[in-house]
Amino acid sequence: MSSDKGDRRGNLATESETEMTVITPPSDANPEEDVFGGLILKHVYLIAGLVARRHFWV
């Protein structure tokens, strides 16, 4: 295996930048109309995976 960094290809961070908008139904909120934290984390992990894929796989 070569440790040469020239073997790795990737994008600049600005090329991997992603933005997502999610419309949540009332069923995803508690009675105080706050969105459940698990739902937010689900979307954070989804976008993190997408950004990682865009960043490292050209």
Textual characterization of the structure:
By secondary structure, this protein is mainly alpha-helical. The protein has one domain (12-56). It has 2 helices and no strands. The protein has helices at residues 13-16, 37-56. The longest helix has 20 residues, at 37-56. The chain is elongated, with a radius of gyration of 17 Å. The relative contact order is 0.22.
Based on the model shown, name its key terms.
single chain; 58 residues; mainly alpha; 2 helices; elongated
Brief synopsis:
This protein is mostly helical and 58 residues long.
Percent helix among the residues? 40-55%
Report the order of strands and helices: HH
Are there runs of 5+ residues with pLDDT below 50, and where? Answer: none
Radius of gyration, taken over Cα atoms and rounded to an integer in Å: 17 Å
**How many separate structural domains?**
1
* Arithmetic mean of pLDDT: 81
Tally of helical segments: 2
Broad shape: elongated
Question: Biggest β-sheet, characterized?
Answer: none
Number of strands: 0
Structural class: mainly alpha
N-C termini distance: 21 Å
Beta-strand content estimate: under 5%
What's the topology here?
Elements: H1 13-16, H2 37-56
